[in-house]
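Project outcomes to date are best conveyed with an example. Our students and postdoctoral researchers have been running inverse folding experiments weekly, and each run begins with a structure described purely in tokens. The record below, which covers 187 residues, was selected by the lab manager from last quarter's runs and is presented without edits.
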């Protein structure tokens, strides 16, 4: 689905475009989110075409990130584990860069992108990976793994982790449904 030039956006799309740009401005790492014309890329052309569906999804994301209790590295482990399960290229591209920026070592990022459980993760990062991987297996989260999440992150942090995995599963599905390509600097 091609990007939409800013000059070609409808009023409703322009409002959503501004909201997305504001959200993107708060991200910690540089990755390409616009094309040479300044149009949003990644999942955003799809969202701009269906603003009535996209706005609630973005509000859900905002609610989950506004008062995050999870450490940034833990969040990125869960996101990359989710992206790898879906083979969502743009998600893996963008969040590999975010993960690097928040301090995850390259070998751990590469392992997560490859769908592995890398050695060298902290105990919290391992719990986040295991929760995300188990949720994507289609089976219930075992009680012992849930309790490990609560010990690591508390009740609220564990709920945030579960919702984060669900959010990025949704984004991965959108990226894959529309076969969203990588930008020229994607690797």
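After processing, the design step wrote out the following sequence:
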């Amino acid at each position: 689905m091609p990007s939409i030039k800013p000059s070609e956006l409808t009023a409703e799309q322009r409002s959503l475009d501004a909201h997305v740009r504001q959200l993107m401005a708060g991200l910690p790492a540089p990755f390409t989110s616009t094309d040479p014309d300044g149009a949003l890329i990644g999942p955003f052309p799809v969202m701009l075409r269906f603003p009535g569906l996209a706005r609630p999804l973005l509000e859900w994301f905002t609610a989950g990130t506004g008062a995050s209790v999870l450490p940034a590295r833990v969040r990125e482990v869960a996101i990359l584990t989710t992206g790898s399960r879906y083979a969502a290229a743009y998600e893996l591209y963008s969040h590999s860069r975010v993960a690097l920026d928040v301090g995850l070592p390259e070998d751990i990022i590469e392992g997560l992108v490859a769908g592995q459980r890398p050695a060298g993760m902290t105990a919290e990062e391992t719990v986040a990976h295991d929760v995300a991987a188990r949720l994507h297996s289609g089976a219930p989260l075992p009680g012992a793994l849930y309790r490990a999440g609560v010990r690591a992150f508390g009740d609220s942090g564990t709920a945030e982790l579960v919702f984060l995995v669900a959010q990025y599963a949704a984004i991965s599905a959108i990226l894959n449904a529309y076969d969203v390509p990588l930008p020229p600097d994607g690797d």
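The mean pLDDT is 92. The helical segments are 11-25, 44-49, 51-66, 72-86, 89-101, 106-113, 123-135, 143-177. The training component of this project remains on track.
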